[in-house]
Write a structure and sequence with these properties.
Rossmann fold; EC 4.2.3.4; 11 strands; cobalt; 3-dehydroquinate synthase; 14 helices; globular; Dehydroquinate synthase-like, alpha domain; nucleotide-binding; 2 domains; two-stranded antiparallel sheet; alpha/beta
């Protein structure tokens, strides 16, 4: 597969990942290489990765963090910054983030802020990270249960998408990543959406191309609007309510935490319903969206008390301005509309629809 040029970096695929990475190490000659992993990627991905890189005389240090969204915190960042300092990382050091979205988001933020910025490379190992965190340079951590409240937009020097790492994933993690791919179809390409919702006509060999197409869509959006002043906002479809739902289930001890994609699937369903009320999304297309999402994602119980707290959490959404919550909705599949204002009574109506 051909590489994809982003605004400031390049995304390489499969075998080309290691050719490009090794060329970079020979040419740029970092003073030290630091590899950030979590508990899972340390065991399942790091050995294969180390076999493929040619570091020569450059010292490699591995730093491990706990896995899971609840560890995407400033406290974990502090531990990584301290480790970098302890191992004498300087401004010519390189940080390689080998993991899912938590590792790439947190690692990118650590690299962007350590000594006012060192080079970093993302090697995403989950489907979600490949199609979402791989492009765009968004880095950051959560503030308590509030998603990605602290961060910076700063691209790494390279991204390496090696789909063989997907063999290490449990099924629910693959499904979680699939939600972001569905989103790319809904906001940008009706044909791509249709392909994703008819996977029975495909086989596993088609997955690489679908991932590639998803990254192409995200890159086209991000390249035209790197700092999210306009078009890039469409990537937030499903995320206004989805992030609030994810935060609520994460911080509530009585709830089983949802994976990111599971929460975003609920958000996309709810926001598609809102689209029929506000943006003229046809009932026919809404039913296509609903059945397409529910083919893969089971419904989750969200009671009346849950709904009130989730709506209260919307005030912390990063897209808000002047205290007004702004949604991305759909006029049609592949035709999003940004900066939509939605009243709470309609949100409650959407929850009622979802519950039945």
């Amino acid at each position: 597969m051909d590489s994809i040029s982003t605004k400031n970096a390049t995304v390489f695929f499969n075998s080309e990942v290691y050719t490009a990475l090794n060329n970079y190490l020979k040419t740029d000659k970092p003073s030290k290489i630091f590899i950030l992993v979590d508990t899972n990627t340390h065991d399942y991905c790091l050995p294969a990765f180390l076999e493929r890189i040619e570091s020569g005389d450059i010292v490699i240090e591995v730093m491990e963090i706990p896995n899971g969204e609840d560890h995407k915190t400033i406290d974990i960042c502090t531990g990584v910054w301290e480790a970098l300092s302890e191992y004498n990382a300087d401004r010519k050091s390189l940080l390689i983030n080998l993991g899912g979205g938590v590792v790439t988001d947190l690692g990118g933020f650590v690299a962007s802020t350590y000594m006012r910025g060192i080079a970093y490379i993302n090697i995403p190992t989950t489907l979600l990270a490949m199609v979402d965190a791989s492009v765009g340079g968004k880095t950051g951590v959560d503030l308590g249960a509030l998603k990605n409240q602290i961060g910076i937009i700063n691209e790494g020097v390279m991204v390496g998408v090696d789909t063989s790492y997907l063999d290490t994933l449990p099924q629910n993690e693959m499904v979680s990543g699939f939600a972001e791919m569905l989103k790319h179809g809904l906001i940008y390409d009706k044909t791509y959406w249709s392909t994703l919702t008819h996977l029975e006509k495909l086989d596993i060999s088609d997955l690489d191309q679908l991932i590639y197409d998803s990254i192409i869509i995200k890159n086209e959006v991000v390249t035209s609007d790197p700092t999210e002043k306009g078009l890039r906002k469409i990537l937030n479809f499903g995320h206004t309510l989805g992030h609030a739902i994810e935060s609520y289930f994460l911080e509530n001890a009585d709830k089983t935490p949802l994976l990111h994609g599971e929460a975003i699937a609920i958000g996309m369903l709810l926001e598609s319903y809102l689209s029929t009320k506000i943006c003229g999304l046809s009932q026919e297309e809404f039913e296509i969206i609903s059945s397409g999402i529910l083919k893969t994602f089971s419904k989750v119980e969200i009671n009346k008390n849950d709904q009130k707290v989730i709506i209260d959490l919307l005030q912390y959404d990063k897209k808000n301005s002047y205290g007004v919550v702004k949604f991305v909705l759909l006029e049609a599949i592949g035709k999003p509309k940004t900066d939509c204002v939605v009243h709470n009574d309609l949100i409650l109506e959407a929850f009622d629809y979802y519950a039945h």
